[in-house]
Amino acid sequence: MNEDGVFLGWLAAAFVLVVLALVAWFWSRQVRADSGLPDGEIIYSDHGAWVPQSEPLYSAHYQLVGRPDYLVLENDGAIVPVEVKSGIAPAEPHEGHVLQLATYCLLVEEIHQIRPEYGILQYRDKAFAVTYTKELEEDLLHLLTEMRNDMVEEELDRDHEDWGRCEHCGFQEICSQRLA
Ligand code: SF4
Asked: Quick check: helix, strand or coil at residue 85?
């Protein structure tokens, strides 16, 4: 092969690499868009996508552990928890899912000293931005207190066999009796 042939070979190889890089870039953009993630830097991932899998969020003060699917650091310094659900979106987010998201907001504020203004519940076909209001925080703290009191009083048995109820419960991660 003469010099022109070698040069054309390298040029073709470089072109193929550029095309592959562009395809990968468009693909990752599409995956990110489908995930419902807002713009910003992903600083936590429970899946190992985009950033390595992160340690669970933990608060000694609340005795609480949580694993949001993602935390996104927006350009203005705000942190947005994102929880991805595989099911079709209900008309309104399930209460358990909202409380689960609120738990992540509480943990973010405790750990990062930044109070999230909202979190995102991304269902398969639709996303909801859930405002982390003081009322929602109070509901969550009230529920956590109730759960702790129950745990102190006795080891309570689950009082139902409803798999769906556990599936939509925001306390799956800390409940030893969950069905889902
Ligand atoms: S058993 Fe546990 S996971 Fe299921 S609904 Fe009750 S608290 Fe939630």
From this structure: coil
Q: Report whether 118 contacts 80 (CB < 8 A).
A: yes
| Interatomic CA distance for residues 84 and 127, integer angstroms | 9
- Between the CA of 180 and the centroid of ligand 1 the distance, in Å, is 9
Q: Which domain holds residue 28?
A: 1-35
88-108 pLDDT per residue, tens: 999 999 999 999 999 999 999
Work out the widest C-alpha separation in the chain, in whole angstroms.
86
Q: Is residue 158 part of a domain?
A: yes
Same domain, yes or no, for 58 and 86? yes
pLDDT in tens, 13-54: 777 676 666 665 666 666 566 666 888 998 998 876 666 667
- Please list every protein residue whose CB sits less than 6 Å from any atom of ligand 1: 158, 165-166, 169, 171-172, 175, 177-178
Residue 114 corresponds to which tokens in the numbers above? 């930044």
If one counts the domains in the chain, the total is: 2
Report the residue count for the chain: 180
Q: 29 alpha carbon to ligand 1 midpoint, in Å?
A: 36
Instruction: Report the atom number in ligand 1 closest to the C-alpha of 96.
Output: 8
Instruction: Find the helix or strand (DSSP H, E) in which 146 lies.
Output: helix 134-153
